[in-house]
Design goal:
glycosidase, alpha+beta, DUF5110, hydrolase, 810 residues, binds alpha-D-glucopyranose, TIM Barrel, carbohydrate binding
Length: 810
Amino acid sequence: MQTCGAIHHWQRAAHGLEVVFEQGVMRLEAVAADIFRLRFQPQGEFAARRDWDVVQPQAGAEVQVFQTDAVLGLRSDALRVEIDPDSGALSFDGADGQPFAQDMGGPHWRCVSINEMPGLATVPDRELPPGPARIGLFLDKHMHPREGYFGVGQRSGRLDRRHQRLSNWTVDCACPGHAQAHDNMYQAHPCVMALRPGRAWGLFLHSTWYSDFDVGASQADSLRLFTLGGELDYYLLAGPTPAAVVEQLTRLTGRPALPPLWSLGYHQSRWSYADADNVQQIAAGFRRRNIPLDVIHLDIDYMHGYRVFTWDRDRFPHPEQTVARLRQQGIRTVVIVDPGVKNDTRTDYAVAEQGRAQGHFVTRPDGGLFTGYVWPGESLFPDFCRAATRRWWGDWHADLLAQGVAGIWCDMNEPAIVDRPFDTPGAREQPMALATRQGEAQAPALHAEVHNLYGHLMARATAAGLQRWRPQRRPWVLTRSAYTGIQSHAVTWMGDNRSCWEDLAMSLPQVSSMGLCGAPHTGVDIGGFFDDSWGELYARWMEIGSFYPFMRGHTATGTRPQEPWRFGAEVEAVARGAIELRYRLLPYLYTLAHLASRHGAPILRPLCYDFPDHPRFYTLEDQVMFGPQLMVAPVTAAGQDHRWVELPAGVWYDFWNGARVDPGPLMHPAPMGRIPLFVRGGSVLTLGNLRQSTTEPLSQLTLQVYPGIDAHWTLIEDAGEGWAYSQGHIAETPLAVSQTQGGTVVTLGQRRGAFQPAPRDMVLKLHLPVAPKGLMCDGRQVNDWRWEPAQRCLRWQWCDDGQARRLETV
Ligand code: GLC
C-alpha cells in the first residue's frame, strides 16, 4: 500500500487549495459553501472531465485558507476542513465545530487484482486492463459509534448499511427475488448518507469505475471507500439534516424531473399481454370493475421477433388504433425497448443495418463487432457513450411516439447479456470485456470505466429523443439500470423480485434508499415478478403499492395472472380500495413530486429522514413516511390483523377514523383493506375526488385538516403535463393550521401563479375531538357545516373561487 506522505508544498487554487505531497497531489475545492470536492491523484495529473459526467458544473464558493503549525485548512460559510500535513488525512466540521467524516489516515493506493472484487467475478477479462484501471484507491473514514449509514442505492438488505461491504457495479443478478442479500444489483449509486443526532452528512464517490463501500464490515469503526481508476474523487455534502444532504446531492447530480400527472396513476403490466385483443380485455376489465387505471405496459412480445422499434403485426396489426382506443378510455401505453439490437443480416432490419453502417455498436477489443445473446438472439449493443449514437437511438423512438405511445420502458440495460440463445440450457452471463473501448475516438474510455453508465446513458438518450420528438410533453422513461443522477432522465424500478413476503418487506428499505440517493421516483413490481402470487400477498402488496412513487403491477411470463380481479372478490375489493386511495391522494402526491423536482426531497422515505434526532428510528424499516404528512405501516407478513407500530413523539391521527393516536409503540389493528396509516398533527392533507383515470377532472378538493402543532403546507398544481409550469403557469395555494384560544384556525392563503385550476368544489374536513359550537369564514358565521361523528370531523363544502379564506372554529 502506498501513501502520500507529508505535504511538500501547497498553493491556492480556484475556490480552494492544491496540495502537493511527497507522493501525489490533492485538490480541495468548495464547489458550493456546503459541498466540498476532494480529488487525490497519486501520479499528479487529474483526469479530464468526461462528457457523461453526472455532476453539473458548479459556480464555486468563497473560501478562506488557514494554516497553523498543526494543520492547513479551508473554510466556507457552512463547512471547514483541516488537512493533517503529515498524512493528508482530512477532518470536516460545520458551524457547530463538531468533527465528522474524519479520515483515519490519508488516501492510499496499490495495484489491485480482479480477484479482489467479487462483483467482477463474471467479466471475461482475467486481468484488469493495464493503466489506471489497475490502480485501486482506498480511504478510511472514522465511523462514529452513534452514526447510521444509509443510501448506497438499490440493494437488497437492511436500511442501515453498517457491517456490510457494498459494491457498485451494475448487474442483472438473474436469480429469482431479492430476499437473499444480494450485493450489487441493476443500479449503481456510490453515495452514502451518515446520520447521528444533530448531524447528517453525505458523500458521493465521483467514480463510474467499479467501487465499493466497506461500512464497518472488515473493521468495525471504519467506513472504507475503494475505487478503481487511479484517482480518488468525492464530494462531501455538509448536511446538516438528511433533507439538506439529499438537496446537496441533487443540486450536484440533477433534480428529479417533474413527471406528467398521468404517470403517478396506476400502471398495469405483465410479460406479456398477448395481443391487441388481450390488451383491450385488460383495459375493459378495469373499466367494467371501476378500478382506476392510467397506463398499460407492453412487454417484449409486442415486437416482431424481439426486434426493437418494430411491432409484431400478427399480434398488433394496427398499433395506432390499439393505442388510440386505450387513450379514449383514459389509458396510456408504455412499450419496452431493450438495448440489444438483433444482429439481423437476413431480413431488412434498418436498426441493425444503420447501426452497423454508421458505427453505432460497441466493438470488441480486437476491433470486431461485439455480439451477445438476449431476447432476439445474437444482438449488437449501441455505444451510448457516443453523442451521435445517443441521438441516433433517441431518434428511433419517433415512430413509436407518432403511433401514440406515451412512455418508454428501458430494460436489460446493465447490460444483461448471455453467451448463447436464451432457451439453450446452460446459458451463462457474458458481460462485455472490461478492456472494450467505448466513447468518442478522440476521448475513448474503457468499458471498465463506463460499464455502470450503460443503462443510465440509454435512458438519457431515450428521454432526450422523447424531448426532441414531442417537445410539448414531459418525457416519461422507466429504466432498470441506472447510475446516480438518473432522476433527471428517468423513473426506475427494482427489477425482478419474487412473489413472497420477504420481497414485499424488502421493498420498503429499497425504495427508501433510492430516495436518499436522489432518485425518488421508483417502485417495485407489485404482487411480485417471479412465481405465482396469491390473494393475501397480492392484497397486502397493493396496499403498500399505493405509496410507491411509481405504482405498477407486473409479473413474469408463465405466472398466474396478476390483475386486481384475479384472486376473488375480497382481494379485488382491497386492490380497488388501494388504487382508489392512491387516486384520492394524487393532489398531495403531485405536490410531493413538485417538491422533489425543486429540492430533491424523497417522496417515500425512511423515518430517519423526518425524525433524524431519534436514533431509535434509524433502523425501523417497516414503517415509512409518504411525504411529511403521512406515516404508513404496512403489513408485510402472512395472517396478521394487527401489527406493532411506533409513532414518534407528537400528535398523530388514524387516517381511517380520524381518532388521535398516542405516540410510542402500540399494537394497531391492520385488517385487510385498512393499511395502518397515520397523519401527523398540523397537516392539511389534500385529497381529490375519486377518478378512474387522471384524464377525468378534479372536480372536488378536500382539505383534511389535522390540528396539533401550528403548520404550513402549500398545495402545488399545474396542467399536469407540458412545460408551462416552468414559466409560471402554476397554482400554489398556501394552507396553514394553527390553534388559538378559541379554537382551530385554517387559513387558505391567496393562490399564487398563473395556472387556473378548473372550477371545483372545496370541502373542509376538520378533525377535532368533539364537535365545535360553530364555524366562521372570514369573520362571518357559517351555518351549513355538519359534524360527522364516525370521522370525528367538521365538514363544510363551498365553491372554490381561488380567494384567500380564514376559517375558524368557535
Ligand atoms: C426482465 C425485466 C422484466 C421483463 C422481462 C421481459 O426480466 O426485468 O420486467 O418483464 O425482462 O421483458
